[in-house]
Write a structure and sequence with these properties.
Blueprint lengths: L6 H11 L16 E5 L2 E8 L2 E6 L2 H4 L8 H13 L11 H13 L4 E7 L2 H18 L7 E5 L8 H5 L19 E3 L12 H14 L3 E6 L3 E2 L5 E2 L3 H13 L2 E5 L14 H4 L5 E4 L11 E6 H8 L16 H15 L3 H16 L8 E7 L2 E6 L5 H10 L2 E2 L6 E4 L7 H17 L1
Parallel strand pairs: 3-15, 5-6, 5-7, 7-10, 10-11
Antiparallel strand pairs: 1-2, 2-3, 4-12, 8-9, 11-12, 13-14, 14-16
Helix pairs in contact: 3-11, 4-11, 5-10, 7-8, 12-14, 13-14
This protein binds pyridoxal-5'-phosphate.
The site of pyridoxal-5'-phosphate (PLP) has 14 residues, from α5.
């Protein structure tokens, strides 16, 4: 084992050489150095604002739903490591990937029968788009190669996903002129519990009908738009999309990368609407936050359509496709989730977030407070001062990562009531000081 780096050396090397998400080079913010993590706590290599460890309010960006260093997931990883950590997926197969695919087919909406294992959420969206375009190409309709989505969305950082992120004010606005030109509907009206707005439903139907000849698919995040603004909408709009897509011969893709595996209170957010898509992406919590893996599922009609084409194969095959380690941990993570009363746990966290975040409504500068499942959001009426807000949360012993006008949390499902309350105090402090 190499000599451990001191936190100061580590930070200096980090600053000189390491690019962080959405960051400049060299970095302008001092990242906290995490030494280890277990349960819901991140242990710091040196104290920050008087804290040696922080309760994780972010689940490492929606992924670590069981918390860190979980004995069951550790065991799954170790067991698989002793057999093989990786083997190519072309011409070979193995039990972890096959088990995982079968499990995903079992737990996702019934028409989804086929699974493409990808190495990140963004890649799974690329694959979903490729599936849809190729489906229509194979059907002799090559002009159907655009996508429709609603504004306010986020689908990842590679090229096709970027083209369906919100083109204005979103993270990828810089690339508007260079990206494929997609069709954008207005943002869905806010409010999970709201009745669908007839005028907005009409707007969706009209746009889909108008562009049907050039549309391969509609792609949306169902019920919760995550990194595009942490907005919730009525599940009713998903039914509108399903009906309009069926009526006009357009495929429907649900990106459940953030919402999947219980986060919104249903195992998959599509269940709130009782509709199933033609193609669906899952990722993030798939491996319980242990390893990078995502999956694109599709119906038999989509798979057979592609296979009937002039090029009857889906030409995509990442080197680490179906990685056995990630697959084994994903199987263990899904079993761990489904082997407990996860719905009750999400309801418990939801109640804790509602209680604890109620105090935020009265704070100056707070525009909206909303909670759905294990997601709590405080929206400000101004751009958050990320450094000040983060500092305020750390002082409360909590890790948060605010962005734009949002201070938000999606804690691990194993977060106890006291820690949920602590996270809420930190969100309020961040909203006050940010
Ligand atoms: C809805 C949604 N789609 C896609 C992605 C991209 O996933 P990844 O970061 O694993 O590439 C994200 C990530 O935040 C997401 O929230």
């Amino acid at each position: 084992m190499p000599e451990p780096l001191s936190p100061a050396d580590l930070r200096a090397l980090d600053r000189a050489h390491v690019w962080h998400p959405y960051g400049p080079m060299p970095g302008r913010q001092e990242p906290l150095v995490v030494e280890s993590a277990s349960g819901v706590r991140l242990r710091l290599a040196e104290p920050a604002h008087g804290q040696n460890e922080l309760v994780d309010g972010m689940s490492s960006w929606w992924s670590a739903v069981h918390g860190y260093n979980h004995p069951v997931l550790n065991e799954a990883a170790r067991g698989q490591l002793d057999r093989m950590s990786h083997v190519m997926f072309g011409g070979l197969t193995h039990e972890p990937a096959v088990r995982l695919a079968a499990r995903l087919v079992e737990i996702t909406p019934e028409p989804l029968q086929h699974v493409f294992l990808a190495d990140s959420g963004s890649v799974s969206v690329e694959v979903a788009v490729k599936m849809c375009l190729q489906y229509w190409r194979s059907a002799g309709r090559p002009a159907k190669q655009r996508l429709l989505t609603w504004r306010g969305g986020y689908h990842g950082d590679t090229w096709q996903p970027m083209s369906v992120c919100d083109p204005e004010g979103g993270m990828h606005e810089l690339w508007s002129g260079a990206l494929p030109q997609q069709v954008f509907a207005d943002e869905p009206p806010a409010g999970f519990g709201m009745e669908p707005d007839a005028a907005y439903a009409g707007h969706l139907r009209e746009l889909i009908a108008h562009h049907a000849d050039e549309l391969a698919a509609v792609i949306v995040e169902p019920v919760v738009q995550g990194a595009g603004g942490m907005r919730f909408h009525s599940p009713g709009y998903l039914r509108v999309l399903r009906e309009a897509c069926d009526a006009h011969g357009v495929l429907l893709v649900f990106d459940e990368i953030a919402t999947g595996f219980g986060r919104t209170g249903k195992l998959f957010a599509a269940e709130h609407a009782g509709v199933s898509p033609d193609v669906m992406c899952v990722g993030k919590a798939l491996t319980g936050g242990y390893l990078t893996m995502a999956a694109t599922l599709c119906t038999t009609a989509v798979a057979e359509g592609i296979s009937r084409g002039e090029v009857p194969v889906l030409a995509h095959g990442p080197t680490f496709m179906g990685n056995p380690l990630a697959s084994a941990v994903a199987c263990a993570s899904v079993d761990l989730l489904l082997g407990q009363d996860w719905e009750q746990e999400i309801k418990r966290i939801e109640a804790g977030l509602r209680d604890g975040l109620a105090a935020a409504s009265g704070l100056p500068g707070v525009r909206d407070v909303r909670v759905l499942g294990a997601i709590g959001v405080v929206q400000l009426d101004h751009e958050v001062d990320m450094a000040a807000a983060t500092r305020a949360a750390v002082r409360e012993g909590v890790w948060l990562r605010p962005f734009r006008d949002l201070v938000y949390t999606m804690p691990p499902y194993v977060t106890g009531d006291d820690d949920v309350a602590r996270i809420c105090r930190a969100v309020c402090a961040a909203a006050r000081e940010g």
